[in-house]
Amino acid sequence: MTAIKNQHFIFLFLFIAIVLSGCNDKWEDHNQIQDPVLADNLLEIIVNNSDLSTFAGYLAATGYDEVIASSKVFTVWAPTNQALANLDPAIVNDGSLLKQFVANHISNQAYFTRNANPLLTIRTLNGKNVLFTKTMFEEANITAADLFTGNGVLHIVDMAIVPKLNAWEFLNNSAASLQKTFLQSQNYTYRDLSQAEIIGIDPKTGNPIYKEGTGYFSENYFLRSVTDLSNEDGKYTFVILTDAAFSAEKTKIAPFYTVSISGATPARNAFVTDSLTTWDIVKDLVFVGDYSVDNLPDTLISYDSLKVHLDKTAIVETHKVSNGVVYVMSSIKYKMSGKLKPVIIEGENYVAYTNAVPPLAAYANTNGTRSIRTRRNPYTNADFTEIYFSGHSTSAYWIHYLPTVNAVKYKVYWVAVRDFNTTGTITYFTQRVAFKDRTVVSIPYKQVDLLNYNEVYLGEYTPANYGALDTFLVSFTSTTNTLNSLVLDYIKMVPVTN
To answer: What is the pTM of this model?
Structure first.
């Protein structure tokens, strides 16, 4: 029994020691906080500091005095009177701008300098992100740190931090330019009826009647489909080309996007060509990541996987924005082979005709066997999908595809794997690829070899215009089923750009 009591005593002693040790650690953390004034809130500490009187006045003018006097927890980076002496009067005299400015110095939660290891990105009350280190708040030096109050933490800084524009805001506030004009032209308005106000029900249809003007929202096609440069939580490097550089890019790229729309006026065709060309330029001027001049890599990868080199000597202006950096540049460098990408036409993605009329109707039949099947390459163990037509008893049977191509010379290849009827007496068959007109033999017939899983070079073809190109896989001119089969994994069209 004595042994058991001794054992309990030892456990109790160890428990008390651990608790006291934890308390000591907490007390050491508490002692690291400078000037704890737990009885006063943030507003009271600021108001009672004569060197922060200007900032206190701005708090009162914007209503943020009541915010930081509440029971919620905040961190405030308060600029001194001297730091605010040269604040732009346009900010001071504009209630909205002043509110944005003050909110840029306040965040939810308590952040101490010891939390910045080595730095923190913090969302302020105006929705902007700021950088906080042990000694800095954005570009400002922290002159007094970790002043612990009843509802948060106060840091005193030696510079007023004006909210930075994000990359999209910067573009919209920049001087007129060709690039800006085009990107702004991508704005559009749409209606979301789930967000519209219902004011009644149509007695005839039973459908809701929506209040006019409700449920409408603005959007930008570039932001939606490429990169949202307005996203404050993103990190981007955004290039704005000078007008001279932008025009030079258009001159270089426009020939590949020349269109000739049937029935359209020359002016309309020119407009579409210009729009396609300009889009091809702007989609490759945004890069994920915040790359300053000092850490600018040799190659950046655009949204569309283009490898781009930003020559530092071509940088005309550098602008730090809230979600990265914007460079105004006089040129960019890339390889055209990266800009104009190969076109892959998958065999199974053919055009299906429903209720087709001549001349398409003759080949929209269900004669023979038409199958899409998954196979495996025995050399790579990779699966692939191919289309196989057989037994149709039709001369020059064809499969139709509609790839989108540029106006550039292409080298044409296919992968057509014949892994059927490979034993006994083998009858070889041929097939060909045709463009625009299936009856014109622009690329001659090619024999489909046994068990060939490699790309086979077929020839060259140069589309006259950008756009959808009628492409055909055509069988041999025979009604004998062993001679007119068709098989295809894919057709590849590789641009010739040198």
So the answer is: 0.83
